[in-house]
């Protein structure tokens, strides 16, 4: 990646966006926008914004991610997750910029026993998954230079996520009931950001063969119960604090508005084959995240967040 490139990060205040600011801080001229400046619920406004900045790379980490609330706000979710990516793709294609977009394991229905591959048939179970799939298809229809990374169970030291929720609930309660029949790969926002930069750099100018959909998750698999158990085990080791009792339960005992896939494990073989990139195992990434867990710091040098 040339140091002279202009890089635009959307969703700069979110989990992945915050880590992209860190990972791409010295990659060129970085402009990072939060929702206050680049609101994907008003996608047409993105056109003038991008045309003013002339970015070489657009990293779209903005999305509607409230899975359960999306069931009652399908139009808003579709605008942000489906319509806005199309406009980003059109503007990127018109200027030969690279668009990097993040999608989700929820485009699958969870019925497969083995890890999902990129070519497997999609069949989302909820509004969130359907709107994210709509965004994928919109980008593919427009064409141009693009990378779509499907990831899963994203967490990190910023924003709202399972890790931070468990830490909070662990301080408030003596007992927690956690779902133990949904399988996936917890993936740290830092690992996603670092893998993204590596992929952008390694692809170089060869976008004829590299543009497409890739799975990008940490290695291994677990359940939400297994994830919670590991969080509290690591917390005990680091702080010697007492953990709550964790009780495994089936999904049927934790009803929510949106259905979740039973198996969300994604195969990362294509990412490894095309880019030589393998994210760390989920346990290793969790330890690293928890060791670094602290209040969010300042903005990385070389970035402008508006």
Question: Describe it for me?
Answer:
- With about 300 residues, the protein is α/β, with parallel strands linked by helices.
- It has a domain at about 5-155 and about 190-220 and about 265-280 and about 295-305: 3-Layer(aba) Sandwich (Rossmann fold).
- The chain is built from 10 helices and 13 strands.
- The protein has helices spanning about 15-25, 45-55, 75-95, 125-140, 160-170, 190-205, 205-210, 225-240, 270-275, 280-290; strands spanning about 5-10, 30-35, 55-60, 100-105, 145-150, 155, 175-180, 185, 185-190, 210-215, 220-225, 245-250, 305.
- The strands form 4 sheets. Strands 10-5-4-3-1-2-13 form a 7-stranded parallel beta sheet, sandwiched between helices.
- Helix 2 packs parallel to helix 3, helix 3 packs parallel to helix 4 (about 125-140) and helix 8 (about 225-240) packs across helix 10 (about 280-290).
- It is globular.
């Amino acid at each position: 990646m040339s140091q002279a490139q202009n890089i635009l990060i959307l969703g700069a205040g979110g989990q992945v966006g915050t880590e992209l600011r860190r990972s791409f801080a010295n990659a060129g001229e970085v402009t990072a926008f939060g929702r206050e400046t680049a609101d994907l619920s008003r996608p047409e406004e993105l056109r003038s914004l991008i045309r003013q900045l002339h970015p070489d790379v657009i990293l779209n980490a903005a999305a509607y991610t409230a899975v359960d609330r999306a069931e009652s706000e399908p139009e808003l979710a579709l605008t942000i997750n489906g319509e806005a990516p199309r406009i980003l793709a059109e503007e990127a294609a018109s200027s030969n910029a690279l668009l990097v977009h993040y999608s989700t394991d929820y485009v699958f229905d969870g019925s497969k026993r083995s890890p999902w591959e990129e070519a497997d048939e999609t069949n989302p179970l909820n509004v969130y998954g359907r709107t994210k799939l709509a965004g994928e298809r919109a980008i593919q229809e427009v064409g141009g230079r693009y990378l779509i990374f499907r990831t899963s169970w994203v967490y990190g030291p910023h924003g709202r996520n399972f890790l931070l929720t468990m830490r909070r609930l662990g301080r408030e309660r003596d007992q927690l009931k956690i779902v133990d029949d949904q399988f996936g790969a917890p993936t740290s926002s830092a690992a996603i950001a670092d893998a993204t930069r590596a992929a952008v750099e390694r692809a170089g100018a060869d976008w004829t063969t590299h543009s497409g959909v890739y799975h990008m998750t940490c290695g291994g698999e677990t359940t939400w119960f297994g994830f919670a158990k590991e969080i509290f085990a690591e917390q005990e080791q680091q702080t010697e604090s007492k953990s709550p009792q964790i009780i495994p339960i089936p999904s049927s005992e934790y009803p929510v508005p949106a259905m979740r896939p039973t198996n969300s494990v994604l195969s990362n073989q294509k990412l490894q084959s095309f880019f030589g990139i393998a994210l760390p195992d989920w346990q290793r990434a969790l330890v690293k995240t928890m060791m670094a867990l602290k209040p969010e710091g300042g903005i990385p040098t070389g970035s402008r967040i508006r």
